[in-house]
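Researcher: Please generate the 3D structure of the following complex. Treat every line as part of one assembly.
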Amino acid sequence: GAVVSQHPSRVICKSGTSVKIECRSLDFQATTMFWYRQFPKQSLMLMATSNEGSKATYEQGVEKDKFLINHASLTLSTLTVTSAHPEDSSFYICSARGPGGSRVDTQYFGPGTRLTVL
Amino acid sequence: AQSVAQPEDQVNVAEGNPLTVKCTYSVSGNPYLFWYVQYPNRGLQFLLKYITGDNLVKGSYGFEAEFNKSQTSFHLKKPSALVSDSALYFCAVRDMTGGFKTIFGAGTRLFVKA
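Model: Done. Output below.
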């Protein structure tokens, strides 16, 4: 099946620094990618939806300037957490959806990135 | 306001028995409804989705879900549980009438005993 990778799998950074997380679709072209955040209580929050070559659409309540999303190619999307603070510590998960057709609703998820901000 | 409730933190079922994982929702318009599964040490997997049409939606791994508009429910079901079905299940709803908010339930952990 389709594979989505994330890098890094874990990152620890100091408060005030920026962290970039990469999401790659390894064997298909992803016209749309999604970024989620999973809280310690295990609930998930959709942060934003990005389409290749255009600006990301952020969910209500998500700070656009805080979480910068770039979808520069059909196989790569990046999430940058700017000026990270301890409350940004979380598990970030990306998901990719392929181009049209009957499988358009199938999303493939990356393994997630654990961010810890000290 | 939109909301999704998974009233059970945990569901226990014996292998071979039918399973149900409950989900109820509240949205202002017509919803898109989803089920996802998270296996231990593995990424999230999309199971199924309801947009419109037949109220019974069939998904991956033998799962299905029934959309009930009057009860605002979208319960996940499987006729015969497998031990390998043990995982964390999430229900999600997206209100397509305004904004782009997708709400996830808190998750239900399913344990299937051999």
